[in-house]
Amino acid sequence: MKSPLVQISNLDAGYQGNVVLSNVSLSVMEHDFIGIIGPNGGGKTTLLKILMGIMKPLKGEVSYFIQRSEIGYLPQGNQVDAQFPITVREVVASGLDYRIGLKRPSGGAHKKQLDSILGKVGLEDLQTRSIGELSGGELQRTMVARAIVSSPRLLVLDEPDTHVDNRFELELYGLLRELNESMTILLVSHDIGTISPYIKTIACVNRDLHYHASNEISEEQLKVYNCPIEIITHGTVPHRVMKTHNQ
Amino acid sequence: MDILELFSYDFFMHALLAAILMSVTCGIIGTYIVSRRMVFISGGITHASFGGVGLGYFLGFPPLAGAAVFAIIAALATENLTRRKILRNDSIIAIMWSLGMAMGIIFVYLTPGYAPNLMSFLFGSIITVSAQDLWLMFALALVVSTFFAIFYRPILYVSFDEQFAKSRGIPVMLFNYMLIILVALTIVMSIRIAGIILVLSVLTIPQNIANLFTNRFDKILIASVILGFLASFLGLIVSYYLNIPSGATIIFTLVVIYLAARVVKVVTFGSK
User: What ipTM was estimated for this complex?
Assistant: First the structure.
């Protein structure tokens, strides 16, 4: 029997009286790879922010069955200032430090961990560069490294595929599949077509949440789930065309 | 007069010490301000503090104490109102900026007699720094450098990506408020030397000179301290020999160094 890592129950969330999520429940089970889909403004990012403790819910609660430091996070890409004077290595290291000063990993282990992750995402030659000298894909790679450097048990990713080229997108999903063997993944994407072969289950978020325990979903089901998104299929990347219901 | 002879004067030694202490504090805080694009906010805090200078004259307490209180109130109000999205950030800054200046002018106008030091608050006066000013500057330099030495990494992480820092359990708001208070105090202490009109330059030009050659927070910080001191020292001597205002001369020296550094960069590293 699988156990939940995080359990969200009867959650309401929003900004200044504007309710974005209403009565949402979700159990994130160990080893799952959940793809969160839904229209823009449907509350996907808000859900992740609540999960990460960045925002407080209006109602309901989130129960954690793992340490908060065991969750890795990749926020939405456009939030950081690419001109900020910080190096690739410093950015990735920020994913290792938790509650600085109180719980600092030992120097040697810290360094080893950093070296191994930088190698894994192919950034070892760029580690002393400042982020302003990186391409969009290299910056996103840095952010992914920051999210996974602490070997989290749960990895939460908010649209990791924006601003990256097709090649990195493929690499990224290959890496996520590999990581999924040891960690549970929660991924927000606007592109169900690309993520479909990698994810195990789907959560449709549009003010409410419908969990779908399979990686295949039809347009009709999306309609039932109140999830008006376009299903895109790609010809240039490996993909699986999803089954549709006979009309 | 011989340069060495200058060192035997109390006023010059005071000015030199003030330049060293200001360079340390402004080098550190300026790097934070520039990296986080808080230069305009700092401008608002600087000008808001003039209200406190005016109130000090009017009620007869030290103008610098009034400036400190006004600067901290303006800093906290800007931070708070921006966070709560009550007003647009740049609008809040403009309001603080002009309200502070307006209050300052009204209080100075209401004060009987002539306010003799008003010009020194607007343009600074490093050669009239007192021993008491130096002790205050020393205390602030000590607090700022200790704070940054202990919390260097969380400060860097919070400045770079607040959301992520928060997800890693760092008390982001606490750091934001503590840092904005240090920014306000740094501005007020530097007003004594560079004046309200000129103080922003000692917080931004050294950092931008350093930024021409390095894109690392720690290197910008250290280089800014050195450059700030170099410019203050040169500016001080030039202003003495040419008999021109010291604050303005220091700023002018900084700009000259910046332009020279740009030329050096183009010659050594090519265009850009």
Answer: 0.88
Q: Set out the domains of chain A in order of their start, with CATH numbers.
A: 1-66+153-247 (3.40.50.300), 81-151 (no CATH)
Instruction: Output the pLDDT for position A166.
Output: 78
Backbone angles phi, psi at B82, to 5 degrees: -70, -45
Q: Please identify among residues 9-38 of chain B the ones whose CB lies closer than 8 Å to any CB of chain A.
A: 35-37
pLDDT in tens, B230-249: 999 999 999 989 999 888 89
Contact A69 B157 (CB under 8 A): no
Q: Where are the domains of chain B?
A: 3-269
Burial class (CB in 10 A: 0-12, 13-18, 19+), B147: middle
Q: Which helix (H) or strand (E) holds A125?
A: none
The answer to whether the beta carbons of residues A158 and A75 sit under 8 Å apart is: yes
Nearest chain B residue to A96 by CA distance is B168
CATH class of B3-269: mainly alpha
Chain B positions in Cβ-Cβ contact with residue A110 (cut-off 8 Å) = none
Contact between A99 and B160 using a beta-carbon 8 Å cutoff:
no
pLDDT value for A230: 59
Q: How is the beta sheet containing A18-29 ordered, strand by strand?
A: A18-29, A4-15, A59-64
